[in-house]
Amino acid sequence: MYHLLAILTVCIWGTTFVSTKMLLNEGLSPVGIFFFRFLLAYAGICLLWPHEKRFCRSVRDELLMLVAGVSGGSLYFYTENTALRYTKAGSVSVIVCLAPLLTALLAAAGSSSGRRIPVRLWAGSVFAFGGVVLMLGSGDGFTSYSQLRGGLLAFLAALLWAVYQTVVKPLSDRYSTLMLTRKVFGYGLLSSLFFGADTVRTAGCLTTCPEILARPVVCWNLLFLGLVASLLCYVLWNKTVEKLGAVVSANYIYLNPLITCLFSYIFLQEHLTLSVLAGGGLVLVGVYMAVSRPLYL
Is the pTM of this model over 0.90? Predict the structure, then answer.
């Protein structure tokens, strides 16, 4: 069941690269997109579950919630959304797929039990990452400074997501999925203040630029990102991490490029090449190898 929830969540997240790209083309900033996205999600979870516990049992856990909100919230979406300004949605989704490998490396580095990550997980990750590289090579590559900058930002996003995965797992053992999700949204919004003037301008759009938010393409994409891709999917994903572990669940992110390429083909008329199809096959093989048996963490 939780494997199906992971697939559903990643399928939805795969479409968000296209959705975010559309919002950037409409004039919203990277900060603006994740600010409205998290504002909608936080308001939704507070309205639907108003009696959920508000504070952690210890200061240490509260600080870990802050780290989760920054790594999996504000900084992750700032780097990912900014990367989409400089390069293609498909390329960003491919590079973000490094997150499972980075999660596994963080898990191995932080393990105090002496247990090693199984060889099949590394083999599955290599297969999947090989598919990612093959898909990336099907495009123009990063031949310009702009594309290189986008690629580096996407890599940073993958690293931030790996940190989030690692931090969320022990917290999910002590707190409910709803509380964890609300904390991520709350600290994601709070930490957006560090972006200063950009956040102020974003908040000002609510009153000074209502015509932008009134556009159907902007309105529907923001609602989708806030209520479906954030509120619903973070609840599902945090539950998945709790049940499957950070390493296993992270490997499903390899499915992102497949979904992104499919929706790019449907909505942006981008062609599917033989390299993309072959790379997608390797991705599926790698994910199956990685998650076919239970793993620790």
Answer: no
